[in-house]
Amino acid sequence: MSKFLMSVLQIDSQADKKANLDKIGRFIDEAASHGARFVAMAENVHYCGPKDGVFASAETIPGPMSAFFAAKAKQYKIWLHCGSIGEVIPGESRLYNTTLLYNPRGDLAARYEKIHMYDVEIENGPSTRESDTKKPGHRIVVADTEFCKVGLSICYDMRFPEMYRIMALQGAKVMFVPANYTLFTGKDHWECILKTRAIENQCYVVAPAQIGKKPAFQAYGRSMIINPWGVTVACAEDRETIIYAEIDPDYVNQIREQLPSLKNRQPGAYVWPAE
């Protein structure tokens, strides 16, 4: 299998949707000029503003945003992982938090709607309910590329290891985790969880993240690419930037052969407890 250059965009999206997309376009231009064959973005790349603008910034798919991404992929003949955007669902009062994946012809190769909603209620403390505005998806998605199969997830999904194990068993060798992670949890959990997902599933983990001050919190940033041995091979500084790393699907095969934990599974012994 061919090695290829992965690029990750770390940006500070704010409330101006047009400005966000213009900036994304410039970053894609730069990544493509450096020879990236795959460009990946963060969660909510189009809008990180006040809650009253969440619905106004969302779109149906297809729509102007998806057309913009498709044109960029086709222009540079690259794979474009579009982080996530708010998707209007006709007839629904909530949005999907949706990842789009475009191939080098500008065709939509895969889409994924975030499954796990960040609903946290602390007694006498803060409360966050993503499900008030977002509808959870229900499909785990693994997509084919000419390089290898890739798995799609978004942010809070990373705390649910069964999802990533299923993607690994379906053949994914690269797993994407676009995020808009808080500084409070990110400083202690971000890298260690991502490394665990890479090690336990013996795959590359590609994690593009937002950075900057958002309306409700400070985003952690620290976008990174982790290899199947659990080594962080690229990590962003605390600013808007692009990071790059070579992805080698054959290295995944090598690791899985040398330490065959996936082959050594004992599915017959695993009984899912009744809930």
UniProtKB/TrEMBL annotation:
Gene3D superfamilies assigned to the protein according to its UniProt record, in alphabetical order: Carbon-nitrogen hydrolase
InterPro entries: C-N_Hydrolase, C-N_Hydrolase_sf, Nit1/2_C-N_Hydrolase, UPF0012_CS
Transmembrane segments: none
EC code(s) of this entry: 3.5.-.-
Keywords: Hydrolase
Keyword 4Fe-4S among record annotations: no
DNA repair among keywords: no
Top-level EC class as recorded in UniProt: hydrolase
Molecular-function annotations in GO: hydrolase activity
Ranges where the CN hydrolase domain occurs: 1-249
Family listed: Belongs to the carbon-nitrogen hydrolase superfamily. NIT1/NIT2 family.
This protein's name: Hydrolase, carbon-nitrogen family
Species of origin: Pyramidobacter piscolens W5455
